[in-house]
Design goal:
The chain starts with 25 loop residues before the first helix and ends with a strand. By secondary structure, it is mostly beta strands. The strands form six sheets. Strands 3-4-5-10-11-12-13-14-15-20-21-25 form a twelve-stranded antiparallel β-barrel. A two-stranded antiparallel sheet has the order 1-2. It is elongated, with a radius of gyration of 26 Å. Helices cover 3% and strands 49% of the residues.
Length: 480
């Protein structure tokens, strides 16, 4: 297998991790803290001038996936086993909510990344040469590129596990408001107290803004921020029947990249991460509840399923974390370079200012990849179970676990560019008066500056498969 630019390229892949279950319980999806109000506790109406809650919470997330590489063989394309990928994130969250008026609250989310680290090793799950990379031959050595079996793309040995950068620090904060235009407590019926459920909203609208407060992750740092502004709109509804409380929530997210997501020109199709939508559908069981004006206790169990779809976009690749963690052979020169990671430097995806040199292959090895890659849209399906115990008036203990599975999708998915005309081989110029339906990767006016022939061309792309994610949390909610 041979790529024209493969000797000068390195591989950065894998998608932004998919969103796992929110730690919110069913009541929290629709319940909004009050201020300057009166509420029912049992059949008694009491004053509620001010509500506030503070929730410190520990979250741990695990991601597992296989990264397969396309291989073009005699006119057909097949997927080859390449890497096994794992990522572990340990996070401490602080959630604050303050009641502002009747069924209107302000909320804030503050994440602290204790550690975020990915690891990689060769996928040796198949003995069939039809699907397995020959790990004894590497594109780091020019003599092995024309091997009978496909060569390995990564400078890893069998049985070796590479650990990427350990990212730590303050994450991306979010600020939001929630409002309930309809609240069941305002329609309290003493003969049917379960319809009250003390402060439960039936319909809640919310807006959250995720700010890029964390240090933006990059190849050469240990930042844990995403580098995007994100706007999240949601509507949730629930209605309690005796000791069960079914609910639904619809969410829409619009991420907008900061200046770190550079727009290199009109030939670039994707600049920002993809838009996403999510549906949560679940039911909360209340096996025990004691409502008293001075002493409230309850136990709640929340079961939910969710579906999320992420549209095509551009984001930082998890494989970028492997850069700068060790040494590697630069290109095919055999020269050992310090701090360039475990794949050779990838230079054909470094920006519009170098596109002409990229096209004719004269650019040197000093141009480094920025870690951003286009990815294919994909869906995630999962489920979660959460437990809430309120043993005393102002304290609630929360814990939960969620598991989901992501659809197989390409994580190197950049389009070659746009058809701007017909290229005249005699003059070496582009005739823009008539389009020929082709995009020439060696023509400056047509090529996408973020396109890499060795990674984005059909027969060379990387696909993330068998993506399984698990997340669990435990927290303590303090209420007043």
């Amino acid at each position: 297998m041979y790529h024209g630019n493969v000797k000068r390229l390195a591989f950065l892949a894998a998608m932004v991790g998919t969103l796992a279950s929110s730690g919110a319980m069913a009541a929290e999806l629709t319940d909004v803290l009050d201020a300057a109000d009166e509420v029912y506790l049992g059949s008694e109406k009491v004053s509620d001038p001010f509500d506030i809650s503070l929730t410190p919470k520990f979250v741990q997330r695990h991601e597992w996936a296989k990264l397969k590489r396309e291989y073009y063989d005699n006119g057909s394309v097949r997927l080859l086993n390449e890497l096994e990928y794992k990522r572990v994130v340990n996070r401490f969250d602080i959630d604050l909510e303050i009641g502002m008026f009747h069924d209107l609250s302000f909320r804030m989310h503050m994440p602290i990344i204790i550690s975020d680290q990915a690891s990689y090793k060769f996928d040796t799950s198949s003995d069939d040469p039809e699907f397995q990379i020959d790990s004894s031959k590497s594109w780091f050595s020019p003599a092995n590129i024309s091997a009978d079996r496909p060569y390995r793309f990564f400078d890893l040995k069998d049985g070796e596990t590479l650990k990427g950068r350990e990212r730590t620090g303050f994450g991306d904060m979010s600020f939001g408001i929630a409002w309930s235009p309809y609240n069941t407590e305002r329609h309290f019926i003493p003969e049917r107290p379960w319809e009250n459920n003390t402060g439960r909203s039936t319909v809640t609208l919310s807006f959250d803004y995720v700010a890029p407060t964390g240090k933006t992750r990059a190849i050469d740092n240990d930042g844990a921020g995403s580098g995007v502004h994100e706007f999240i709109f949601a509507v949730a509804a629930s209605h309690r029947f005796a000791f069960v409380d079914p609910y639904i929530r619809l969410q829409y997210g619009l991420p907008v990249g900061t200046d770190d997501f550079q727009d290199y020109g009109s030939n670039q199709k994707r600049v920002d991460p993809g838009m996403w939508g999510r549906v949560d559908l679940g039911i909360e069981f209340i096996p025990y509840e004691s409502i008293d004006t001075k002493f409230q206790r309850n136990v709640k169990i929340d079961l939910r399923g969710y579906f999320k779809y992420v549209g095509e976009g551009r984001a930082y690749s998890e494989l970028a974390d492997a850069f700068g963690t060790g040494t590697c052979y630069k290109g095919v020169t055999g020269q050992l370079g310090e701090g360039c990671g475990w794949v050779a430097e990838k230079w054909s995806n470094a920006g519009a200012s170098h596109i002409a040199d990229m096209a004719n292959g004269t650019k040197g090895l000093e141009v480094m990849e920025d870690g951003l890659f286009d990815y294919e849209g994909f869906a995630t399906v999962g489920g979660a179970i959460n437990l809430s115990i309120q043993p005393i008036q102002y304290v609630q203990i929360n814990a939960g676990v969620a598991v989901d599975y992501s659809q197989n999708h390409f994580i190197t998915f950049t389009k070659i560019g746009k058809d701007r005309g017909t290229f005249n081989t005699t003059t070496g110029k582009l005739d823009s008066d008539q389009k020929d339906g082709l995009v020439m990767d060696n023509v400056l006016e047509e090529r996408n500056p973020t396109y890499s022939k060795a990674l984005d061309a059909t027969g060379s792309r990387i696909k993330r498969t068998e993506s399984l994610n698990l997340e669990w949390f435990v927290g303590l909610k303090l209420m007043y």
